[in-house]
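Researcher: Please predict.
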Amino acid sequence: MVLAIRPEVYPPSSGRTYKTKLTTTTFTIHLAGNGRPYVAGPTARKPRQPVNGRETRWLSGKDIIMKITHITMHQGRLRFNPGPSLQRMGYKSKILKHDDGSYFSQGEALDWSNALCRELAQKRKDNSITRTNRRGQRRQATLHTVTNMFDDWFTNNPRFSKQGIDIGKRQEQPLSPATLRDYKQKARVIQNHAPLIWQSDIAALDKIIIRGMFNDIWQQAGLASANGAVRALSAALSWTLENRSSSINVNPVLGLRFPSPKKNPRFASKAEIRALIEAADSLGLPEIGDAVMLGLWTAQRQGDRLNFEHRGKINGRWHFRQSKTGAIVAVPPSPELDQRMEQSRLRRHKAKIINPRVLLSEKLWRPFNADYYRKQFARVRNKAQEKSPLLKGFCDKDLRSTAITWMGLAGVDIPQICAVSGHTLQSANNILKHYLAMHPEMADTAIAKMVTWYEQDGDVEQW
C-alpha cells in the first residue's frame, strides 16, 4: 500500500529520503516521479481511495508525527532546542523561521537539521571531539610533541619578533635574528640526531630520557652540539610552562648537570697578526686585512664590525656607528689602525665608491654578509698558515680575545678593558675566565707590582 502526503503539508525535497511516524509505525517518505511525496510502508488505517490500482490514502498534518534531531514542537511551531553539549559550543534555542517571518515546515526543518548535523560532524573531525557519556562532549587529548613546542616557541614568543614587547610600562627588547637562527640550529640538532624525542610528547620527557638524548648527541655530533641542544630544549620547555597550559608541571632539564667543552682562549702573536694581514693583501683581499686590524684595535665582535659606519674622527677618536642598533663606538687612535683606514679611503677614492660602511667586499663593493665573510677569512687564514702554522683553527672571534689579552698583558685593569670591549663590569670575571689566558708575562707583572709595593714599605692594616 502507498500513503501519499499532500505537498502543502510536507513540501518535497528532491533526492532525499525521510522518515516519519504514523501512529506507531515508521515510514520512509520518497519523492514520486511527478514530484509528489509518498510514504511506503504498512498502516493500520484503511485507504480512502485507490491510485493507479494501488491502495493509497492522503495523510494530513495531524497524521504525521516527525522526530527530527535537535528539533521540538513548541506551541505549534518548530523550535531548535540544543542540548547541554551544543549550548557549551555556543548554540542557542530559537524558533525556526525564514527571513520574511514565515515559519519552517517539517520538511524544511528536517533539511535544516541535517545540515546542522553535517556541520557538527565536521567540527568534531576538525577539533578532535568525541562523544562521551551523558555529561556531553569532550575534546580528545592531543599530543603536544617536541616539534609542536618548538614551532610554537619560535612563532609566538614575542621576543623573537622584530618589535619585542612594548605594552604599557613593560618594555623588552627583541632577541637578535642571530639568536633566533642559533636556537633553530640547535633544535635541528635534536631533530637530526634524536628523531624519536623530536616526535614524542613533551609529557614523556624525564631526566633519564634527556640524559640519554644528551649522550647520543654527544657521541654523534660532539659535546658542544649536545650542550647547545639541551639548552635550547630547556629554554623552549620553560617558555611553554610559563605561557601554555601543558601536560607537564616542571622543566625536566632543571637540576641535570652536563659536562661542558673546555674553553681555551686563543690569542695571536704579533707575527701571526702580520702574517694574516700580509696574506690578505697578497690574495687581493685588503678588506679582510682591514677587518683584522679593526678587530684587534677595537675589540668589537665580528657582527658589530661588519655593520660599522664611518662617522669620522672627533676629538682625535675614530667614531663608528652600528648600522642596525645605532650605537656609537668611539675608538682611540692607534698608528696601525690609522694606516689601514687611510689605505681603505684611498682605494675607495680610486674606485669612486661612496659608502658609509667601514668594511665592504671590494669585489663588488657591497657590504659583507656573515657567511661570505667567514669564507674569505678562512681563505686568508689558510694562506697565512704557510708562514705561521700555529694559525690553524684561528677564527675571527679570536681577534677579540687577542685584543683583550694584549690589554691584560699591558697592565690594563678590568674597568678599562670593559670600556673598550663593551663588556659590563658584572661580567669582568667572565672576561678573566674566557679571554685572559694564563701567560708567564702576567705572573711576571703581578710579582713585579708586589715587589714594588713591598719595597715601598707597603703593609696591611690590622682591624
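Model: The chain has four domains: 2-59, 71-131, 146-243, 270-447.
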